[in-house]
Amino acid sequence: MKTLHLIRHAKSSWDFPDLSDHQRPLNPRGIHSCEIMGLKLVEADCSFDHVFCSSARRAQDTITGIYQSLPVSAPEWQTDEMLYTFSSYELIHWCRNAESSINNLTLVGHNPAITDLVNELSDSDLLNVPTCAYVRLECDIRNWSELKSGCAHLGCFIKPKMFMK
């Protein structure tokens, strides 16, 4: 069995109209969400063994913010330009090319790709994976190349608003 861990980037700022979409940072709410979600991801058994992140600044700021709130030293993560996508089909293609030796794959990316990916692969029908939310898909496959529609079960879905006072 393979497990796919998905984290949508936290809320980004629109305060700098001259910045490209790729360069937008997190806003204060997004930064706070990362602080909240770090420990919650550990409690939800999110794997930080093989983390791959979109090249967008808001995605990188998200994983950096989450890591800063972890009770242990921050694991390594890799940036991949191919994860700066809004297409679930491109995410599926990317995952199918992951090394078979990896059992837990964590992606930090964007909507609508993440929501569409969850609904395509699993038995769920989520309307939206909100910013800084986490989804764990338990995939009934032996190799990532076998990833296909309906192969996964939604094992966990948490979002920052569940923990805000």
Automatic annotation (TrEMBL):
Task: Please give one Pfam family short name.
Answer: His_Phos_1
**Gene3D superfamilies noted in UniProt:** Phosphoglycerate mutase-like (3.40.50.1240)
Q: What is this protein called?
A: Histidine phosphatase family protein
